[in-house]
Specification:
The chain has 408 residues and is mainly α. Helix content is 80%, strand content 0%.
């Protein structure tokens, strides 16, 4: 029955399912690799700033990739950008599967640069494809599909965090990297065979200058996204895992498990966001929705920062506070993910989506660098104050978004 149902699907939807499956497989390795790098290099004695620098090229090349990748996707098709991304991630993992004495900061940064390119090619390909599968005007269904894809991806990324901590304990760094590269190579070979349609290729070949969006709504949403993700990563990337390991004396299993639980819960809430924000009543998000939910989010890092300052049930305040932050942040992220797909033009959709995720990557870059520097100099409390400031800026920008659900 399942095979019969699969055979009746349109070729376009089958292609999208393959892209989504590849995206999920990639996400597992991406989450595991991030946790492996943070915990392993912290164990080797690297400072928070040095650990943050390991991710610098990952985020910088993510910015560039989203800008150029959207243009490539529109010209070549999303199947090709997906396969390129998978192949580059295998190369990046292979670079890290060398003896420990070869893993200098510069070398790891280069491997992370390839991984950043790979990750954002995959994300752009998967997110862009949704626009092409939902009929024009079906905004409620579009919101639900975006929420499910984004939420399931982040839940799997959380599993990847746990997997990274577990593999580091069981197989050590090199063994974990080799296992992940081998499994992803199998997925890549399947992808080369299965992805045959030029999904997402624009009817008119876009010029490179078109990578810069001309839509006011997309520009504003992209700016809000930059600050939203900067607000998360300023404490999440380096500060939190090191804080948990040093202050609470948690081992790799506990740190990886908490980070995994946070992202899995975050992904589940993202998937449920349409129901949380009123889809059952026939409502879909607007610019006002983005402003309201960002306003809610601003309060949470302020409360956690005060708890840290006054040493108020420290462990409970940090753990519970950041779980609440994750849930509210997930709704914000899901709203943004829907709005960009809704605002984007259907022909050459990856141009608009790529531009938006360039801003997303820029926010991650700023947050990552600040996470290491601010935490080392001033501690987690300062990271949380910066997080609150960034969310407040995202909220103010969201006031200028269109009050209608779609820009097309």
């Amino acid at each position: 029955m399942g095979l019969l149902s699969l055979s009746t699907l349109s070729p376009q939807i089958k292609q999208y399912l393959v892209i989504t499956g590849n995206y999920w497989a990639f996400t597992l390795t991406d989450g595991a690799l991030r946790m492996l790098v943070v915990l392993y290099f912290h164990h080797l004695g690297y400072s928070p700033i040095n650990i943050a620098m390991l991710f610098l090229f990952y985020e910088i090349f993510g910015v560039v990739t989203n800008l150029i990748g959207g243009w490539l996707g529109a010209r070549l098709g999303l199947n090709k950008t997906m396969n390129i991304g998978l192949g580059l991630q295998i190369v990046a993992l292979g670079m890290l599967a060398v003896p420990a004495d070869m893993l200098s900061v510069a070398y790891v940064m280069a491997a992370q640069a390839l991984s950043g390119i790979a990750k954002d090619l995959n994300k752009m390909s998967a997110k862009s494809a949704i626009k092409l599968l939902v009929p024009a005007g079906a905004e409620g269904k579009l919101y639900q599909w975006v929420a499910v894809l984004t939420g399931s991806k982040n839940a799997l990324k959380g599993v990847g965090f746990f997997l990274g901590g577990a593999l580091l304990t069981l197989l050590e760094f090199r063994g974990a990297i080799i296992l992940m590269a081998s499994l992803l190579a199998v997925v890549w070979l399947f992808s080369l065979i299965a992805l045959k349609q030029d999904l997402g290729k624009a009817k008119n070949k876009p010029k490179f200058k078109e990578v810069f969006s001309k839509s006011r709504a997309i520009n504003i949403l992209s700016a809000a996204r930059l600050f939203l993700f900067g607000a998360r990563d300023v404490w999440f990337v380096v500060a939190l895992p090191v804080f948990l390991a040093v202050t609470f004396n948690w081992d790799h299993w506990w740190v990886g498990g908490f980070m995994a639980s946070w992202v899995i819960g975050y992904g589940i809430v993202q998937s449920l966001a349409p129901y949380i924000t009123g889809k059952k009543q026939g409502r879909v998000p607007t610019g006002r929705s983005a402003f309201i939910w960002a306003s809610y989010l601003t309060i949470i890092p302020v409360a956690i920062a005060f708890a840290l300052h006054f040493d108020f049930y420290l462990q409970a305040s940090v753990v519970i506070g950041l779980l609440i932050f994750g849930a509210v942040f997930a709704v914000n992220s899901s709203l943004h993910s829907y709005l960009i797909v809704s605002y984007a033009n259907a022909d050459g959709v990856s141009l608009d989506v790529g531009f938006y995720y360039m801003a997303n990557a820029m926010g991650r870059l700023i947050g990552t660098v600040l996470s290491g520097i601010v935490f080392q100099l001033y501690g987690l409390e300062a990271c949380l104050w910066i997080s609150a400031l960034f969310v407040a800026i995202a909220a103010m920008l969201s006031i200028k978004l269109p009050i209608t659900s779609s820009n097309n």
